[in-house]
Predict the structure.
Amino acid sequence: MVLAGLVMILGGLGCQAEKKKITLGFSQIGAESEWRTANTKSIEEAAKTAGIELKFSDAQQKQENQIKAIRSFIAQKVDVIAFSPVVETGWEPVLREAKAAKIPVILTDRAVDTKDETLWATFIGSDFVEEGRRAAKWLVEKMKDHQGAVNIVELQGTVGSAPAIDRKKGFEEILKDKPDFKIIRSQTGDFTRAKGKEVMEAFLKAEGKNIHVLYAHNDDMAIGAIQAIEEAGLRPGKDILIISIDAVKGAFEAMMAGKLNVTVECSPLLGPQLMSAVSDLMAGKALPKRIVTEESVFPMETAAQEFPKRKY
Ligand code: AHR
């Protein structure tokens, strides 16, 4: 009897030892936008809920810091590495190091441009090309009765980043056989409010009242640009139509104030999907190579009704 009890106790302890906490190393881009802050919060909360130990590193928009963080996660022998790559290229060497150390890598939010797709396990995030298409489709529909040229200025995201490349591509794809729609100026605002305002000021200085539409690759740049438009004595949302991407609360406030016309959703709430992918990987389950987030489009007319439901 005593021996049987001892065996059970030892067996129980063995099980606990086997259930070692999973460690996830996550390299975040920075805190450049309302979207990014919500993304970080979602990842931290989901890790807590899933009982996963999160080693979090903020790269302050620098690829070199992300590479350093990934190398440090490898040295610490974490179970899984995840990261949102600030730009698309330049990742092969460090990803090969993770592979050699047998640490699986998950991409969240943004993709990498690598020939060897075995360097990462899965990519969880939005379809940025589709977001660009949705933005342009909304514009074409909105301007269907307009006669003559539609002059568009574009505030691009971070140079070389997947959302900047893809949102431009999707937008232009829809407009390519519509000669009246012209992108007359296009420049990066680095996904920040301050840069969005600064570049919009320059656009207004160069073009004056010649601008009909602003297409901003994210809400933060659109919000910065709204300020520039008002300071130039024009009415954002009326004199200049404004289209942006993300659907953060700040965009809904701007829409309810009549200053932003539409926002295309890009969800930052990737934490729960990331944690379940991490747990699945550790349980030896196969993951789909691509996990796409489901998203909508919110024109200003829907803002007041949708605002109370927004989680970010
Ligand atoms: O990668 C997603 C983009 O990055 C969001 O649209 C933008 O706001 C963020 O900074």
Residues 128-266 form a domain with the Rossmann fold fold (CATH 3.40.50.2300). Residues 32-33, 35-36, 109-110, 163, 191, 218, 220, 245-246, 266 surround alpha-L-arabinofuranose (CB under 6 Å). The chain has a mean pLDDT of 95. The longest strand covers residues 181-188.
